[in-house]
Amino acid sequence: MKFTLSTEGFTDIINITSQVSKAVKESKIKEGICLMSCPGSTAGITTIEYEPGLIEDLKRVLEKVAPVSENYEHCKKWGDCNGYAHIRSALIKPFLAVPVENGKLVLGTWQQIVFLDFDNRPREREILVKIMLGFKINRIVKYLLLSDLVFWAGWGLITPIFAIFIVDRIQGGTPFVVGIAAAIYWISKSLLRIPIGMFLDNRPGERDDYFFLTFGLFLAALVPFGFIFVKFPWHLYGLQVVHAIAMAMSLSGWSAIFTRHIDKGKEATEWGLDATSVGLGAGIFGAIGGWAVTQFGFDPVFIAVGVLGLIGASLLLFLRNDIKGVFGHGLHFSFKDIFYRAKK
User: Fold this and answer.
1) Which of 43, 182, 219, 344 might form a disulfide with 246, Cβ 3.0–4.6 angstroms?
2) CATH number for the domain running over 2-133
3) CA gap 305, 293 in Å, rounded
4) Residue 338 has pLDDT above 70, yes or no
């Protein structure tokens, strides 16, 4: 955005706080930095308490620092006699940055933004205003990302070697068993996501989203401990069903809360942060998992996966005071009411 000022020159000082505030409001950016600039080398932008006494004080000090009547080399060469204006502009600077929080300029009670025209003639000045999006992530999204990173880094330890575990450790384990186990998990989880999503969408508030997210992640974190005791394919299939239920619950709750609290204007960035952190964590820990199995066997690795999963789930507990209604009066619902609303 930009706006124009008509000035009188000779250190004319104009309050531009309202124009800049309007630009911030129109940008709809909640968190970031507001940059103001005036093209040229005989103007300045700064902040001050905009009252007559201070305005005169500022002019008097600038006159002492860079007097109009000084014999400037600039004037000797160019003959425009505004050397003092260039000096004052170099000292004050023709640009300014102010933080933006909650969609407003962060200024003190008596602090205003002012434009100073030092030139020796009236001018039409153009002020450029640029609001740069900040990279501050809100608390809820931050903990969701951190929880995801730790949890999926843990599962990265066994993802690349899980098929080897099934063939080597389970009686009757074959590539076919590997395929059936994978099919049970993915099909079960996929079929459960829609009804769970319908249920959560028809519940008011975020209490149920948070419950499904947290309980599901804790339940999923226990599954690796169960792998230690698996002997037959049907044991594995049962754990895969539990894992699918847990992840369907957790992912449905996570998606609802994350989507609701994602920072406006940073949607692609924050979705990208989650995908990147999960991918990097799983990739790095996948390499570590392969090495760890060759050194210590499967059981210690399964324990590590479970511990990391529990840590990732526990991080969600830090959000219990940020999610409205978590400490309400239980979970009450009617399936008939849910499906009635869905049909409407």
Assistant:
1) 219
2) 2.60.120.460
3) 12
4) no
